[in-house]
Amino acid sequence: MTLSTARPGTFLVVDDSALHHQMYRLIFSKGSLAGSTLYHAMNGREGYALLAAHPELTVVLLDLNMPEMNGLEFLARRQAEKLHPHIPIVLVTTESTPDDEARGRTAGAWDYLRKPFQPADVARLVERLQAERAPAA
Amino acid sequence: MDNDHAFAELIQEYIAESLPLAEAVSDAFLALERRWQEGDAAAGEVVELKGTLHTLKGNSAMMGLRPMQVVAHALEDLAARVAADERARTEAESALLVEGAGLLIDLIGAAADAQSGSGEAEEFVARVRRRLEADAAPAVPLRLERRRAERRPDGAPDAGTVRVDFRRLDTLLEIFGEAMIEQSALTEVYRRLAARIGSSAEVTDLDRVVVSLRATMKRLESALMQTRLLPISTVFNRFPRAVRDLARDEQKQVRLVIEGGDTLLDKTILDRLGEPLVHLVSNAVVHGVESEAERLRAGKPAEAVLSLRATALADRVVISVSDDGRGLETERILAKARALGLEPASPTPADVHGLIFVPGFSTAEQVSHVAGRGVGLDAAAAAIHDLGGGIEVASEAGRGTRFTLSVPLTLAIVRSLIVEVDRERYAVPLSHVAETVRVEPGALHEINRQGVVMWRGSAIHVADGGRLLGTGTTRTAPRNYFVVLFAGPRHRGLLVDRLVGHQDVVVKGLDPTLGRPDVVSGATILGDGRVACILDAAGIVAQREAA
ipTM of the predicted structure? Predict the structure, then answer.
């Protein structure tokens, strides 16, 4: 594993799988991301409320397939309401088609995380997003 | 699994989340297969399953569990084909879907063990790929919507549901039981008071309170019971897959028909009903249903029908397990019984068939095939009797066999007849009382040192209540009545001094240090505060066989 220079931050995970929340808990408790604050939502609706309440979020990790507002619906609403547009949202998918990705980009996803992923993939992604935001900060 | 994997420590969480999903997939594919066999080629559930399979694939991939990942992926592709193309809805596809879902359950269940099952998974995937190539038609696959949200509108059926630890419901029931005892104590005091001071405005008022309290307690009881009930489908649901697998092993064709899955039963009873039912169902497939060749020779359809039905009666649930197989062989059962020194109450098929429940009968290995039934029926019957239930069998040679189980809705409260023997009171569950009869002079006879009495035109054995319950040496009153107890087709009379009345009694368990007396199943507290034993009617009836 290459050493990541990602920094701990405040993250929101929106996923309907309890297993995935446990995985993120492991990822954000080790290595360069250790010490991060993690918020959990089991569906898009809950996630949206948490996004509204936390303008300090570093990154939102948003699952594509969920009941109660899926990832694309989440993005569409966020774009329409211009809710904290400075917070990057990453769409988490399993083998998404180019078509899915294009729709996600149009709807305002900053990046993609494809399952299956390893802790190092998440660290690299966070590092990249933190670097992108740094000049503006 | 690979212990070095980043998420290895989450293996139990993986199993906990994925197993129910795989089971839901399996149930849906089985339902699909059944409908296709019946000629209905719809494939609606496949659309919904797409999301579930996708989650299973994603979970497995994240955990680095490749066998599960590839099987879920193959099922996803096959399901997509089936949804898109009606021509791909044949037995070959449904068999693969069902098999794959079963494989997925097995793999996930064993996920905590060392990496295994990859050979089986690859082999299955290869077969699915071949099938998909064979199916390859110019049809364009439908784009499946993955949004489960649309099927679960906001606030729909889960709204207002809370999960409660079942022990809390037990505590509530226990407290209710105390209240019921106090209520009957109050009624008792009221009666004595009314008898002493006669009618007065206060007695009339008290009477009103006592009557309305009784009605309220009834309502409370039924509301409490409602909270303990679960649909019997929670037990029935395990059978589609079990029957399918067993039939395949036996190289038989068996169609399982389930009716009344929404019938409600107390959870405590459901928990104890599974095992006897598994026994009856597997016996039916293995021993009741003939081989395909034998069925065709007998002019029957090659496919056997096994049905599982539940029906709710006022305070009982009746469950039947019936097959259209070879039926019980009356002559052979009779011969076997005589070899074991057993004699049926009468040579009618009903009495002869009833012998298969006698302890020891069906444990004889060679009975299994000749009688068309397997071993251990006595154990199943005993489990049902322990629940305060009954089991009966009806069978016709060449036409099939039907087992009928009847169990109480609950174990907590028993409608009872209170009787008195040598000044002690006992509760006899009404579910096992056929009749109470006044003893006429000269009605009792003794044959082989056993009491016998004529009842409804035939002789039945009677037991003296005092001798049975260990108070016989202090006989103080004449036995004025006999209570006819029954369990299944068998009857036995119980001589008692007095009939006190009917009462709903709250069952209290016996202290384990008392062991498990043959004739007593529990205890209760009566209105006057006295402890009364609840008689195990089925046990008393069964004792005759041992005598």
Answer: 0.88
Of B140 and B131, the structure prediction assigns the larger pLDDT to B131
Nearest CA in chain B to A99: B143
Task: Report the alpha-carbon distance of residue A118 to residue B63 in Å, rounded.
Answer: 10
* Closest by CA position to B183, among listed B220, B214, B216, B212: B214
Residue A63 domain boundaries:
22-132
CA distance B423 to B466: 10
- pTM here is 0.49
User: DSSP for B240-293?
Assistant: HHHHHHHHHHTT-EEEEEEE-TT-EEEHHHHHHHHHHHHHHHHHIIIIISPPHH
| Paired tokens of B31 | 């339902």
Q: Which segments within B349-471 are labelled E, that is strand?
A: 390-396, 400-408, 413-421, 424-429, 433-438, 444-447, 450-455, 458-464
Q: Of the ranges A13-17, B140-144, B181-185, B209-213, which one carries the lowest mean pLDDT score?
A: B140-144
What is the count of structural domains for chain A?
1
Q: Which residues of B touch A69 (CB under 8 A)?
A: 149
Beta bridge partners of B421: B424
Q: CB–CB of B498/B508 below 8 Å?
A: no
Three-state SS string across B333-354, please? Answer: HHHHHHHCCCCCCCCCHHHHHH
Among A15, A23, A29, the residue to mutate for chain B (most B Cβ within 10 A): A23
Mutation for A interface: B17, B54, B62, B152, most A CBs within 10 A: B62
Closest CA to B52 of B124, B158, B147: B147
Q: What is the CATH number of the domain that holds A81?
A: 3.40.50.2300
